[in-house]
Structure formats: C-alpha cells, structure tokens
C-alpha cells in the first residue's frame, strides 16, 4: 500500500504528463489553423484572379456601351517610384481615358476607400497618363447594396453579376468622378 505522499506524487506526475499531451495537441491545432488560414488566403487570391479574368473581356463591351472607347486592357499593373507604389488589377485605356478597376470576390467599403486612394496616385506614379481622364471602377462577385451605393456616391463605376453576365450597375444618369 502506498502512502498519501506517494499517491500525491503519482497524481502530480499523471497531471504533468496530461499537461504535456494537452500542450502537444494545442501546438498541433495551432499548426492546422495556420495551414487552413494559408489555404483560405490562397483561395481568396484565386477568387480575385477569377474575377479579374471574368471582368477583363467584359470590360471592353461594358465601357464601350458607356461611350468609353477601349484600346487596351492591362492586367496587374504595378508601379514603384521611391517609397510610393501602387497596384491596379485592370486598366481600361484609350488615348484620352483610363479606368482603373479594382476586382474583389466580396466588395467592402474599405476596398472602395483603398481604391479611391489608389486613384489619387495614378497620375503621379504613372506620368504617361498625366493628361488622361482617370476614372475608377470596382468589380466583385458579391456587392452589398450599401457598398454599391457608397462606391456610386464616390463616383466609381460598379460592376457586378447579373444572371450569367457582368454589368455596370450605375444608372444612365451616373457621372463618374475624374482624377
């Protein structure tokens, strides 16, 4: 028969072993969460690429229907000048106009605000467009109504899904902001 002290030590030893097992499981869980988070991030990037690939061919038709001739569609434009840089998902360009399009799977107001800041930098960071009328657009698979209204109120074209096709959701009276 064991003494009370030996029983306490046995319980403490068992508790310590149990704690080690719990710590190991917590580390495994943390690692799995990191892996899932990374996978979700990659999926989000792929959805963004999917949106860009869907919008690019539709953009020619959509902007021509709005009276903006399209000579070029540039994808994933990136520029860095000194400490400042910018990336534009799609640029719809002709001799006078440039429409910078931000593509998202699920558009949020923060995305609109970030795109507005991006639009303000285009002429400075891409001086070959200094004499162009710079306009903006946002495109997404999911566009909450309040975010669509916000983007519209800020002078951006709003491109979204309508059945099997993409459409510019702005009404005929819409006047885009020009930078």
Automatic annotation (TrEMBL):
<dbReference type="InterPro" id="IPR024271">
    <property type="entry name" value="DUF3782"/>
</dbReference>
<dbReference type="Pfam" id="PF12644">
    <property type="entry name" value="DUF3782"/>
</dbReference>
<dbReference type="GO" id="GO:0003676">
    <property type="term" value="F:nucleic acid binding"/>
</dbReference>
<dbReference type="InterPro" id="IPR011335">
    <property type="entry name" value="Restrct_endonuc-II-like"/>
</dbReference>
<dbReference type="InterPro" id="IPR011856">
    <property type="entry name" value="tRNA_endonuc-like_dom_sf"/>
</dbReference>
<protein>
    <recommendedName>
        <fullName>DUF3782 domain-containing protein</fullName>
    </recommendedName>
</protein>
